[in-house]
Design a protein that fits this description.
By secondary structure, the chain is an alpha+beta fold. It contains 6 helices and 8 strands; from the N terminus they run H-E-H-E-E-E-E-E-E-E-H-H-H-H. The chain starts with a helix and ends in a 10-residue tail after the last helix.
């Protein structure tokens, strides 16, 4: 399943093709993936401009507006989901497992392909984004400068589970999965079996930026 760095890579790849451009058509080729596509999604999204693309943990956020309001498509790629840019969407031959295509005003398109159909697409307004069920109880993002070793120590304080298990808890830190938890602990020379609340503060001091790919 894609972790924070992979989703951030997808966001950066889509940004030049989407940011500032109008979505002219939303084509859905099944009723849903892991969960049904939002009702009236095409009606809500079509004809609106992509204000920006952001990310929260392992979720890609596509903000659309231009009419005094802003709505947000919340996309989770699941196990096998891919979002790719097609430069000429009119001439594109849809592939098996292409479940959603967003046509852009310049003739390009964004194709969401998901062979295993574990992905999700949800929709909310920007004012309700932070309170959305997908983000309830979610911890801080690990990449901003505000996330320090001190913050991590406070999050781990009193936890008796292993530190790797704690890092996988999205309430402790958002977006970290098995691969990056293992890599960060290896670089910090912390055993993944050590009790989270007993971790050496000195070893946590530089985490996660020493291992961060961004």
């Amino acid at each position: 399943m894609p972790e924070l760095p992979e989703v951030e890579t997808v966001r950066r790849g889509l940004e030049p093709a989407m940011a500032g451009k109008v979505i002219t058509r939303v084509a859905l080729y099944r009723s849903g993936l892991r969960m049904p596509f939002p009702e009236r999604m095409a009606e809500i999204i079509e004809g609106r401009r992509v204000v920006r693309l952001s990310r929260r943990a392992k979720y890609l956020l596509i903000h659309v507006g231009g009419d005094g309001t802003e709505d947000v498509m919340i996309v989770h790629l699941g196990m096998s989901g891919q979002m790719t840019v097609v430069r000429d969407i009119a001439g594109y031959n849809r592939r098996r497992h292409d479940h959603m295509i967003l046509s852009m005003e310049d003739g390009a398109g964004i194709v969401f392909n998901d062979a295993r159909r574990f992905g999700m697409v949800m929709l909310t307004d920007s004012a309700s984004l932070a309170a959305h069920a997908a983000f309830g109880g979610m911890g801080p993002e690990p990449l901003p400068d505000s996330f320090t070793g001190k913050v991590l120590r406070e999050k781990l304080h009193g936890k008796t589970s292993s530190i790797k298990t704690a890092l996988l808890d999205q309430g402790v830190v958002a977006g970290v999965g098995n691969i990056y938890a293992s890599e960060a602990l290896f670089e910090a020379r912390i055993s993944p079996l050590r009790a989270a609340g007993q971790s050496n503060p000195r070893k946590l001091k530089g985490w996660p930026r020493r291992s961060a790919p961004y």
